[in-house]
């Protein structure tokens, strides 16, 4: 059976990300507006740096998920303009979920991120309450695990 065009584009996109992309869990620092206290949270990120803007636009169109493409500031060492395509948080999760079946090299990382999202309950919103310690510990474990996979 022939693959449909969407499957072919997703497979191509996964191959491109296998070679040029980065999947990771980020620990972000933020300051509480009310007290000025420094806190941390975890999130998922997928990004690709590339000097061909059309390729990044094709990837974004293929995935059909909102993402920003930014110009990277050129330096003396840079011959060509480079761009970065960034998927963050739930957008990154959805993109990784779409391409995971087609990944080769980064499949273990993708699966770790999908498990991190589910087991770390990243959909959980606590408002002003702190994250339960057991959830924080799960997220931190997956954060460290993915670092060791790199």
TrEMBL record:
A Pfam family found in this protein is LAGLIDADG_1
Q: Which residues form the Homing endonuclease LAGLIDADG domain?
A: 14-104
Q: What InterPro entries does the record tag this protein with?
A: Homing_endonucl, LAGLIDADG_dom
| Protein's name in the database | Homing endonuclease LAGLIDADG domain-containing protein
Q: Which domain of life is it from?
A: Bacteria
Q: What organism is this sequence from? A: Methylophaga aminisulfidivorans MP
MF terms (GO), sorted A to Z: endonuclease activity
Which ranges does the record mark as transmembrane? Answer: none
């Amino acid at each position: 059976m022939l693959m449909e065009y969407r499957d072919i584009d997703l497979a191509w996109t996964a191959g491109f990300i296998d070679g040029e992309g980065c999947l990771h869990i980020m620990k972000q620092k933020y300051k509480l507006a009310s007290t000025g206290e420094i806190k941390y949270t975890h999130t998922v990120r997928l990004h690709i740096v590339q000097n061909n803007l059309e390729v990044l636009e094709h990837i974004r169109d293929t995935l059909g998920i909102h993402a920003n493409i930014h110009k990277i500031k050129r330096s003396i060492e840079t011959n060509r303009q480079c761009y970065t395509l960034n998927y963050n948080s739930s957008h990154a999760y959805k993109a990784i979920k779409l391409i995971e079946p087609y990944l080769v090299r980064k499949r273990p990382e993708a699966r770790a991120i999908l498990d991190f999202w589910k087991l770390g309950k990243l959909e959980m919103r606590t408002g002003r309450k702190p994250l339960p310690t057991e959830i924080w510990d799960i997220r931190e474990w997956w954060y460290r695990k993915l670092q060791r996979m790199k």
